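User: Is it possible to get a 3D structure for a protein together with its bound compound? The compound here is calcium ion. I've pasted both below.
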Amino acid sequence: MFANQKLWAGLLGLALTAAMAQAAEPTIDYAIKMEITFTGVLYQSTDGVNWTKVEGAVSPYYVPMDDARKMLFCSKDELDHPPTPGDDFTTSLPRGVDLGMNWINPGTFMMGSPDDELGRNIAENEQQHQVTLTQGYWIGKYPVTEAQYKSVIGSSPSSDGDDHPVHYVSWSNATNFCAKLTEIERAAGRLPKGYEYSLPTEAQWQYACRAGTTTALYTGKNLTDAYICPNVDEVAWYVGNSNNQSHPVGQKKPNAWGLYDMLGNVWEWCWDYFEPFTADPVVDPKGPATGTRHTGGGGFYGDPASRIRSGYRYVDSDYGFVFSGFRVALVAVASSVNSITVPLSDSVNLELNWIEPGTFMMGSPEDELGRYSNETQHQVTLTKDYWLGKYEVTQAQYEAVMGTNPSYWKGANLPVDMVSWSDAMDFCAKLTASEKAAGRLPNGYEYTLPTEAQWEYACRAGTTTALNSGKNLSDKDRCPEMNEVGWYDGNFALKTHLVGQMKPNAWGLYDMHGNVFEWCLDWYEENYPTSAVTDPTGPETGEYRVLRGGSYYDYANYCRSAYRYFYADAGWAHFGFRVALAPVK
Ligand SMILES: [Ca+2]
Ligand SMILES: [Ca+2]
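Assistant: Yes, that's possible. Here is the predicted structure of the complex:
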């Protein structure tokens, strides 16, 4: 059928051409076009300085020759989707200005400087202490340049050159830049879910600056002189080499994580208000809630070598100084966006926090105070995300679901106690059924008890210490480190306490240490695997079930993240549980 139609059209065309050749003057026309083949995204410019994206251009792209004579073209790889945590990326800001961001893995480091570091600032300001950052983030490869600042804000407070770091920036200017950048990247569909642009916290800044080093400079070298020091030359613009002016970014040696100009050139604002450091280990520090002066690091082009150190800490009020610039971070937003609230009755809700899949070391190191031999350390990978109760299940919640309250210690917002493993599982089954009926149960998920691995992973929240505060025990029975995180025998708890009064862990979970022991799904088996495992669920069968976290009735070493208790299917006044919303097994 199609073939026939084509044939007829062809014959008709031939007839017409023959007829017209006799009737009209022949004409000719030239149209010369430039063919551009490219990969990535095409940009055009008339001056080679200001570039605009050629919207919708695909390769090959044709430009009329007259137009092409006045045009310059270039192409570049461009992100058209959110970056993946773990990967470095470059995004394209308005007017074709690039912004490069490097991924930084979570980890633990020593923040501050050792007492004997040459050039050290007032001692208490640089007090060395252990910091654990539980979440990875991105940080700018360079300080924000004048071109980047103009691209996002429209104008720049300094005018040393497009590729120079912007300075005379106040803390408010810098945070405003981050907010605008977040809007731009969100509108372009390039903002990773759960992340936003922000100033790095002081800990994020210093962790990234040190890149694993503990010395004054990120090259692994210390200063030999506090004023003019040859070791500074290779990494930073400072008073000894800058001619008292800023320099284009990226000319000095980067650190091991590919970051440039962390030291010198311009000093960089951080998120935190100032407070003196203490020697205590901390997890995900963000500084005090209020204050008048903000922190920052790295020194500037007019500073002596003593201020060009990773541990150098400078504090100032919210003003645009000659020395003040910044670099952006792309950080996970507080976990509140990832929590869900389940209405159990008109007045009682159940809150659960989302737990991201990941890998951790389960068990305890052999030198952990108060440990037991059934805690052999081994690597565990959890491949599926799940939600875990923010609090132990309360009596009000238990009653709303089960219609009864078996607790020995009575109080609506006390954790339910006297519950056996089977009681806890019955609660989960009823909740699954009612949530399913309400159409709120995520596909492939059910309410259940967490596996022992899910419990410990969530309890640790990125920490590797005995407690999820980043601290170890100073005494296996009674110690101050326990007081801030849990109700236990050592603070004379004597009974269960209202849930949620102690300090939560980095993932927003309360009372993982102490108050009531929490049933886990697994049968107990004394020996852990000795090699790496994925999504472990414990032995097929057994005599006892696992309980975790210690209770008001126990000493500190029973409340450690790694401690494993086990018991037959029975309820006691210090046994409770916490629910998980986890993939159906
Ligand atoms: Ca700098
Ligand atoms: Ca508990």
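The first strand starts at residue 33 and ends at 36. The chain has three domains: 33-76, 89-331, 338-583.
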